[in-house]
Amino acid sequence: MNIAPSKTAVSNIPFDQARVDRLMEEAGIDVLLATSKHNTQYLLGGYKFIFFAAMDAIGHSRYLPVVVYEKGGPDHAAYIGNRMEGAEHQNNPFWTPTLHAACWGTLDAANLAVEHVRKIGKAGARIGIEPAFLPSDAYALIRKALPDAKLIDATDMLERMRAIKTDAELEKLRIASELITDSMLATIQWACQGTTKADIIEHLRREETNRGAHFEYCLLTLGASHNRAVSPQAWKKGEVLSIDSGGNYHGYIGDLCRMGILGEPDAELEDLLAEVETVQQAAFSKVKAGTIGGDMISHAEGVLKASKVAPYTDFFAHGMGLITHEAPFLMTNHPVTYEGTYAAKPLETNMVLSVETTMLHPTRGFIKLEDTVAVTDTGYVMFGDRARGWNRGGTA
Predict the structure, then answer these.
(1) For the chain, where are the E strands, in sequence order?
(2) Which of 83, 119, 120, 121 is nearest to 99 (CA)?
(3) SS3 helix, strand, coil % of the chain, rounded to 5?
(4) Which of 107, 130, 191, 271 could form a disulfide with 195 if both were Cys (CB 3.0 to 4.6 A apart)?
(5) 277-328: pLDDT as tens digits
(6) What is the DSSP annotation of 343-374?
(7) Residue 238 has pLDDT above 70, yes or no
């Protein structure tokens, strides 16, 4: 399905065009070829094709969506998708003036992208690509077909594009966090003595799905164990439970951790969770637009270092949105292997952070809180700000 460019001005661009154009200019990019699911979704205003939501492979190849966007030229934008996406366009038209819903694999998608770039007169331009999300056969085809073009890694530019959330994005992140929090609390209350980790994880999956979230994972510990993988281990009276889950709402991630107890927490457990909460609050106290990101990190780490639980406790904070680790990148290789390129930069309004303090106690188990906060001019707002203490199991 090929649709010719519109003859009218583009008025329904779903992102801040001036900001994206500025970021492209700073990165030395004339034309974007976005090929990751998260960046094509962003550039299409939240759209993601449901048929390939859980997998990419089909036949001998894979699904490769492409958004072509020329700096300062939204009238030249195009979306290249699967043949079945023509029906999606009929129901909810894409904003791009050109649509090629014609592909079943990587090479036909790359061919159409090349044809479109030539058609808009940019065959020798500086073209931004996503190396980690551009299959080698598609890359080779583009490189050969556009020998005069300069291919530029657009990863950083696209990460910067997504770093500042719109109000609509913040609302999706808030809903995702609320749904995950409600689901985890309901699951803890449902689980009882003898309930296995496998049963608890499956129950959480159903709770999230029934609330309208898309379940992605659950990392769960019981008792003194630090092993968060699914297993037949059963919950016992007096044991702690740590439940860390990621799920999304319309593509935006909710990622939180809460604690449970089968029975009543003793004084030691109350004290240990309070130590974790103290570090969390130290981090929150420095979250505000204008604060240097690394200053927030160092303050929380300083509070942790002075704590008696420091030898077996870790602090971490990272950006999140359409994916679980995105800008702002505040810490280097801790634990995910990327550079903390935002540590020396100020936090900005509408950035979103996941803040987590993890204790691997030698005898009491895995004790952790993970929270999601959005940066504001005066501080922060927390999403899913409930159930942050000891939640009793077996009470449903």
Answers:
(1) 2-3, 31-34, 57-58, 61-62, 66-70, 73-82, 98-103, 126-129, 150-153, 214-222, 240-249, 252-261, 313-319, 352-361, 365-375, 380-383, 390-392
(2) 83
(3) 35, 25, 40
(4) 191
(5) 999 999 999 999 999 999 999 999 999 999 999 999 999 999 999 999 999 9
(6) TTSB--TT-EEEEEEEEEETTTEEEEEEEEEE
(7) yes
Partnered with residue 240 across adjacent β-strands are 261
Q: What does the pLDDT look like over 112-157, one tens digit per residue?
A: 999 999 999 999 999 999 999 999 999 999 999 999 999 999 999 9
pTM: 0.94
Query: How does 195-217 read in b/e, with b if 16+ C-beta sit within 10 Å?
Result: bbbebbbebbbebbeebebbbbe
What whole-number distance in Å separates Cα of residue 247 and Cα of residue 264?
29
pLDDT of the residue at 288: 98
